[in-house]
Design brief:
alpha/beta; Rossmann fold; 2 domains; seven-stranded parallel beta sheet; six-stranded parallel beta sheet; about 15% strand; globular; transferase; UDP-glycosyltransferase; glycosyltransferase activity
């Protein structure tokens, strides 16, 4: 147990996996913790050191998984098996929701707990060198959470995806959406198949956790469910506080719904992007972003379908497309009103856009809510179906099935969004605007300081 000397700033280590979609919001939270009075160390893969600098945090290089995604998944240097799994996953998204989720379930055992002994040694070395008072760990970084659990170190959990990623009941299974959007409704048989695969994963993963604990920390109690292992002090959700979300029964843990992890001011990406937006706006009254995330940008067939539909149904709109390493294959779509790039400054562009088409990833979803941008959601995998359901229920977006999408349907949906903004957007943008990273950081500091005082 630890206690702070009077006048000393608490030392906090924010640990991120080597995925840009996780490291970016965690770095924003790290900056907010620094503003709230903490001495912050950002620990992640070396390529993410610039994020630490932007957050006014010190950087500690730490590798916690063989898998990685530094911005464009296919362009990130991967090991042979990691690259093979990525291609298998992308192929499965063409066959619909359940096939994608089943593929992810098969891959999960390899992804979730690779090299636990190495990660344990890395956290032990980090702690010996930096002596943090407490940690903030990405909820999907299971090896890090397990290491902190084995070492008896105090931490808070940051959930980067849908809140049901932290199971709230025995029936909640990681990898099975708690609810589905209207456009995607698998049969009961297919859902049962998915639940069986997820249950087997849950049991195997829990057994693996127990095995690691027996080997490296035999005096420590193993969790009843590995997927449910999270901080007993504070869990932070990068998500709006929708009233219908399942409630967590643990009364001693503080669950903080922060709304979003968007900085108060997004810096300009430079003259080139300023010029792109200026040119498009001079000739077109509307601007639409199309981005399917760092993995799913590889689905250039869906990107092309959306762009063709938009050009046909909404001629007054210009479009900016994030195409990852598939940008060359979409070059034929380039026109005065179409700008195709490998990556885009999404948060900056959202302040200048009239609408967005995205995959239902948590960052894109919450960034659209924070900026008040209407969206067409095309969910492919992971928690995207649950997020799409919530977006529909909150009247924040339209959702369609990307595996059955045609140009006319896509274009008509975008036309509707631009003609009449979703009914819930202004209300939830105002409500989410009252929260955010500084709101989370302030409350987290109070919670962790209170936990310290109680020791």
């Amino acid at each position: 147990m630890w206690s702070l000397r009077p006048g000393r700033r608490p030392r906090v280590a924010v640990v991120s996996p080597p995925f840009l979609s996780h490291a970016q919001p965690l770095s924003v939270l790290a900056g907010a913790l620094a503003r709230a009075g903490a001495d912050v160390q950002f620990a992640s893969a070396p390529l993410f050191e610039p994020l630490a600098r932007s957050a006014s945090a010190r950087f500690f290089p730490l590798t916690i998984t063989r898998n990685a995604n530094t911005g464009i998944a296919r362009s990130t240097r991967q090991g042979g098996r990691e690259a093979e799994r990525l291609e298998e996953f992308l192929g499965s998204t063409r066959d619909g929701a359940v096939e994608a989720l089943l593929t992810q379930s098969r891959h999960r055992r390899e992804d979730m707990l690779s090299d636990p002994a190495e990660v344990l040694a890395g956290i032990r070395a980090l702690h010996a060198r930096l002596s943090p008072d407490w940690y903030v760990v990405d909820q999907l970084s299971y090896p890090v959470t397990l290491a902190l659990h084995c070492l008896g170190l105090r931490y808070a959990t940051f959930c980067p995806g849908h809140p049901t990623y932290v199971p709230h009941s025995p029936d909640t299974l990681f990898g099975v959406p708690y609810a589905w959007p209207r456009a995607i409704r698998p049969s009961e048989d297919r859902i049962a198949q998915l639940r069986r695969a997820a249950r087997a994963n849950d049991e195997a993963f829990t057994d693996r956790f127990a095995e690691v604990i027996r080997t490296h920390a035999p005096s420590v109690e193993a969790p009843r469910r590995a997927f449910a292992l999270a901080s007993r002090h504070a869990v932070l959700f990068n998500y709006p506080p929708f009233e219908w979300l399942p409630k967590h029964p643990r009364s001693n843990t503080r669950f903080l719904y922060g709304g979003h992890c968007v900085p108060a001011q997004e810096p300009s990406p430079g003259a080139e992007w300023e010029g792109v937006v200026s040119r498009l706006r001079k000739t077109h009254s509307r601007l639409v972003l199309v981005a399917l995330g760092t993995f799913l940008s590889a689905r250039d067939d869906v990107l092309a379908t959306v762009v063709r539909g938009l050009l046909r149904e909404v001629p007054e709109a210009a479009v900016v497309v994030a195409a990852g390493d598939r940008a060359p294959s979409l070059a034929h779509l380039s026109a005065p009103n179409v700008y195709v790039a490998d990556a885009i400054p999404q948060r900056w562009l959202l302040e200048r856009a009239d609408g967005m088409v995205h995959h239902g990833g948590n960052n894109s979803f919450t960034e659209c809510v924070a900026s008040g941008t209407p969206a067409l959601v095309l969910p492919f995998s992971s928690d995207q179906f649950a997020i799409a359901h919530d977006a529909e229920r909150a009247e924040l977006a339209i959702c369609l099935d990307p595996s059955r999408l045609g140009p006319r349907e896509a274009g008509a949906a975008i036309r509707r969004l631009l003609a009449e903004s979703p009914a819930g957007l202004s209300r939830w943008t105002r409500r989410v605007g009252l929260r955010g990273p500084d709101w989370m950081a302030t409350r987290l500091m109070r919670t962790m300081e209170g936990a310290t005082a109680g020791c």
